[in-house]
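[Q] Does anyone have a clean C-alpha cell version of this?
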Amino acid sequence: MKHFMVPLLIFAVCTSACKSKVKERTDDIYSRHLQQHIKLNIISTPPPDRKSDMNLLLLNDGQDMDKLRVKSIMDSLYKKGLLQPLLVVGIEPVDRMQEYGVAGYPDYKNNGGRADKYAAFIDDELYAFVKKKAGVRKFNTVVLAGFSLGGLSAFDIAWDHADKIDKVGVFSGSFWWRDVDAGDSSYSDEKNRIMISKIRSSRKKPHLQYWFYAGNKEETGDRDKDGVIDVVDDTKDLISLVKSKNVCSPDDIVYTEDPNGIHDFGSWSHWFGNFLLWAFSNK
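[A] Here you go.
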C-alpha cells in the first residue's frame, strides 16, 4: 500500500493544479459568409460544474491577445476568485480594414465594405460553432469587445444582434468613422459620422450594457477646436446619443477616461482587468 501513496498524492496535486489553470489553444472555422478560414485564439478558465454557468467573451483582433495580456490577467483574477467561469474567443481578421466598420455603410475611402459579412459570420456561424465546441446550450453572459476599429465593429454588431449579445466593450472606438473626408468643406460631425447617424435613425431597442474607454493622450486631433481630442468627443457623443434613446438604464453605461491613456495595447491592457470585472465579476 505504501508504494502507491506517493504516486496517488502526486496525481491528486496535479489534477487539482491543472483544474485551476487558465488554458490556451487555437482553432479555426470556415465561414461561408466571408468565404475563408478564420483563425481563433481561445483562452478559458476551468469549466464549471454546470455548463450553463460558463460565460463567453468574443474579442475582435484576436491576433493581439498576447499584447493585451489576456491570459495573465484572466489567470490572476480567476485565482483570486474574482472572475466567473469564462471562455474568451479571439477572432483574427483576414482584412480588418474591410471586415471592421459599420455593416452596410463603407467609409469615404470604401473601407468597411465587408463589415456586413463579418457581422453575419459572428451572428450566424461563430456563435453556434462556439456553443457546440463548448458543449453548452446557452452561455450565462455573452460579451463582444474590441479596440479602435475593432471597437467600432463590436459596438455595431452588438447593437444589431442584441438577441445573442448581452454586453459590449469598446476601447478607443473609431466613432470618427465617416462618409466624407473631415477636410472637405461639406463635412459635418452631425451628418457624416457614420455610427452617430446610424444610431440616431435606428428604431432598435437593444437590451445591452455598455463599457467604454478613451485616453486623453491618444491623439492630438480636435476637429471642433474645443480643446478635447476627437476620440474623447466622439465617444462621449455616442454615449449621450445612446442615453437619449432610452434603450437602457444610465447605470448600464460605464465610461472610463484615462488622463494618461494612449492609443496602444499597453493602455488597453491596463484597463482590461477592470473591463473583465465589469462584465464577469464573481462578486
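[Q] Thanks! Anything notable?
[A] The radius of gyration is 20 Å.
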